[in-house]
Amino acid sequence: MVNLHFNLLYIDPGTGSMLFSILIGAAAALYFLARALIIKLKVFVSGGSGASSAVISHPYIIYSEGKQYWNVFSPILDEFEKNETGLLYLTSSEDDPVFKSAYRFIKSEYIGEGNRAFARLNMLTADIVLMTTPGLNIYQLKRSKMVKHYSHILHAPSDAVMYRMFGIDYFDSILLTGDYQANDIRRLEETRGLPEKQLVTVGCTYLDVYREKMKKIPKEENHPFTILVSPSWGASSILSRHGEKLLDPLVRTGWRIIVRPHPQSKKAEPLVLESLAKKYAGANNLLWDYEQDNIHSLLKADIMISDFSGIIFDYTFLCDKPIIYVKQGFDLRPYDADDLEGELWQFSILKDIGTELNEEYFNRIDEVIKQASDNTKMSEARKKARETAWQHRGEAGRLVYKFMTEIKG
Questions:
Q1: Total domain count for the chain?
Q2: Measured between alpha carbons, how far is 14 from 175 in angstroms, rounded to an integer?
Q3: Rounded to an integer, what distance in angstroms lies between the CA atom of residue 405 and that of residue 58?
Q4: pTM of the prediction?
Q5: Whether the Cβ atoms of residue 335 and residue 165 lie closer than 8 Å to each other
Q6: Does residue 313 contact residue 232 with C-beta atoms inside 8 Å?
Q7: Least packed by Cβ within 10 Å: which of 48, 243, 309, 329?
């Protein structure tokens, strides 16, 4: 009887998510109904005509999923502060760096994570809300009726259609790092019969931050030749798919090896990381990097080995050094890109800026690394890729501020 009773009470995660969305929708409807009634009552008491609209509580709002996005948003906050323009910054990190910042015009608030955060976000009142979070109006994150404009800022210089299905469909505007990203968004809108969004190229805020930080880091003394292994995450990433097959020959080279797993790997594949860490615990030339900023490892590396991770472009654009990529079978079906024909820019450009490494050459990896390191022909291709995907270098914060204040105005 106990087990039967428990089974009757069980709600699967999908149903739970749907029920939560229904509850949030109902709560939002009641909230706006109550707000409208209060406004009408105030108008009636004050002798107004009843045509007055709700007062916008916060003209500008930014939502951050966590402190890992601080480098994306801090240049924008700095511009609002410099121009003495008020902004509400909502974050899902209790230890977000914003709380240690001495801003006078930025109001910051911790709103929790998951459903607690969604409950707050779905009832915002603002002229414009800016976020990196995709999936607006798809699952729990809904458009608030009291927000005039939702804007999504891309936080990587790679293709804009590499979000999970419908990731950017319901935003009013997308802020791009390079003009090239607009083409696929327009094709996606046409394919799905969506209205055109406002597309504005502003550059890449976090790359601007990294570039300035790297200038202040002193060069490493007695620098040993260093290989940075920095993959993406999931079943198709090189750590999950190859693991020891790749790391064993790398360790045998005697060169310094820095392994920087993707931040999502800790959540998605902890057993893979634990197994590899245990195996190479005695390898003095293999180091693990879990720091929030990747710039220290980028500066130390003489060459990078990756797969389809966006860090390839961080390294290429900031350091202008060789990369080696292990080509993986990438399943596009869960992504917006699957609705489009043709090869994505971020995959096609790898052929020009990097050296492909096949599994059959793992045991001769030292030769591949030496050849890639001596190849100077790819420097011009790296420069062209940087100019394509990272425009308005050093200006992103200012351009985002300009866009947000003009939209509001």
A1: 2
A2: 32
A3: 12
A4: 0.83
A5: yes
A6: no
A7: 329
Calculate the CA dihedral of residues 182, 151, 188, 140 and round it to 10 degrees: 150
**CB atoms < 10 A from the CB of 299, how many?**
20
Residues 129-163: b if buried by 16+ CB within 10 A, e if exposed? bbbbebbbeeebbbbbbbbbbbbbbbbbbbbbbbb
Q: What is the DSSP string of 31-57?
A: HHHHHHHHHHHHHHHTT--S---PPPS
Who's near 280: CB < 8 A, 6+ residues apart? 247, 251, 286
Tell me the C-alpha distance between 251 and 168, whole Å: 42
327 burial (CB, 10 Å; 0-12 / 13-18 / 19+) is: middle
Q: Is residue 46 part of a domain?
A: no
CATH number of the domain that residue 242 is part of: 3.40.50.2000
Model pLDDT for residues 20-39, shown as the tens digit of each residue? 555 555 554 454 445 445 44
Same domain, 365 and 266: yes
Q: pLDDT averaged over the chain?
A: 87
